[in-house]
Write a structure and sequence with these properties.
about 40% helix, zinc-finger, 3-stranded antiparallel beta sheet, alpha+beta, Herpes Virus-1, 14 helices, 4-stranded antiparallel beta sheet, Znf_RING/FYVE/PHD
Length: about 400
């Protein structure tokens, strides 16, 4: 079986980008160490990004089994999403364990990276962080005192808050007397590090490398910090992007299969999927001994029961209904006029269509094209008035914000 994080190339990932293997430039190439990178990154002299083995991809062997399973994951994106989420919130049904994917998140069950036994696993946080620290280029993070203060001042008004810790920075200098501030290029012997930026760039959870069973924790990781993956937000944070890519590929494949049959229903489907991903990726507060309704929920995220599951069920229903649409909906002709007349807002979104596609509850099942709904009449009339003028907009249209009654 394959782990979710085995679907991506670690050699070319960035803070904001995860590249899935595909059948073109990113075919999976397996190294002599057993790990895989994409074809683009598989230079013969390249070290493995996971285990650091030198010249690991000298043979350039395509990992056909990985490619086969990746295509299977894309096809079963809804099922993958559902199982991924259920395991993370501790709702896994052991009665269907034999048909589940071998995710480390399955209440901790998977293949130990040290002894290859299938056991309840933990992530060794100490080793994972040490490896990330070893691999990162620290010169990209060192700041002099002045630049660190300026960065904190710039971020104090909102958004990402930047904190700098000079004690940790000194420990990371590895014996150097002076280092260069990456912002102003001045040398300093008292560097600061923006820990929020550093954490975002080094918070990779390589489950194939750092997942270990209880016996191996005792034998090889004594005194290290370990954690159950189901209780660690970083696991969800690092894998939700992969689940999102699989889900979006699934939705795009429908449009490629049937063409543009109903633009508004396709938009509504995408909005519902995005909302499910949003709620699944939020950093919820965790239950503690003081507020949990039952002991087994200690350490689990607080979230409305069934919220993500209900939205996902509705996404599958919308997908199935759209798949059955045979004739082209009149909203497609309206969409073509929107494109022709450039009726988009500053974010390049069609405001009237977006307002019609939205609904108060993403888990609510609605039949038909939103263009025909009574709730869409105001936006439909506004849009038709603009289209009747026949003037191409040279400035972005005003965005429309929909307010729902409680």
């Amino acid at each position: 079986m394959i782990h979710l994080e085995s679907l991506i190339c670690y050699a070319c990932q960035t803070e904001h980008t995860r590249n899935l293997f595909d059948e073109k430039e990113r075919r999976a190439v397996v190294g002599t160490c057993g790990h895989s990178v994409c074809l683009t990154c598989s230079r013969a002299d390249k070290n493995c990004p996971l285990c650091r083995k030198p010249d690991a991809f000298i043979h350039g062997t395509v990992n056909y089994e990985a490619m086969r399973q990746i295509e299977e994951f894309k096809t079963k994106a809804f099922e993958i999403f559902g199982k991924w989420w259920k395991t993370l919130v501790g709702l896994w049904d052991f009665g269907i364990l034999e048909i589940c994917i071998s995710l480390l998140q399955e209440t901790g069950i998977g293949v130990c990276s040290s002894c290859s036994s299938e056991e309840v696993l933990r992530i060794c946080v100490t080793c994972q962080q040490a490896q990330n620290l070893k691999d990162v280029n620290l010169t990209n993070f060192f700041l002099c005192h002045k630049c660190a203060d300026e960065k904190i001042e710039r971020s104090s008004g909102g958004g990402t808050v930047h904190y700098c810790d000079k004690i940790e920075a000194k420990e990371w200098m590895r014996g150097a007397q002076n280092v260069q501030c990456y912002n102003c290029q001045q040398e300093t012997d008292d560097p600061h590090v923006c820990t929020s930026c550093f954490h975002a760039s080094t918070n990779n959870i390589n489950v194939d490398t750092f997942s270990v069973c209880a016996d191996c924790v005792i034998e090889n990781h004594r005194g290290h910090v370990t954690t159950k993956t189901a209780e660690d937000y970083s696991i969800r944070h690092n894998t939700v992007g992969i689940v999102e890519k699989l889900l979006m590929i699934k939705l795009r494949s429908l449009e490629e299969k049937i063409g543009m049959k109903c633009k508004l229903r396709q938009m509504r489907l995408n909005l519902s999927a995005r909302e499910a991903l949003y709620w699944a990726s939020c950093h919820y507060p965790l239950y503690t001994e003081e507020d949990c309704p039952e002991p087994k929920l200690i350490g689990r995220p607080k979230i409305c029961e069934g919220q993500v599951e209900d939205i996902l069920v509705n996404v599958k229903k919308q997908y199935g209904k759209l798949e059955m649409v045979e004739s082209t909906c009149p909203c497609v002709e309206i969409w073509n006029e929107i494109v022709r007349l450039n009726i988009f807002d500053i974010h390049r979104l069609p405001p009237h269509f977006l307002a019609m596609a939205q609904k108060p509850k993403s888990e609510e099942d609605l039949d038909g094209c939103p263009y025909d709904f009574e709730t869409s009449r105001k936006y439909r009339e506004q849009l038709l008035t603009i289209i009747e003028k026949g003037e191409v907009l040279t400035e972005p249209h005003e965005s429309i914000y929909v307010l729902y009654d409680n």
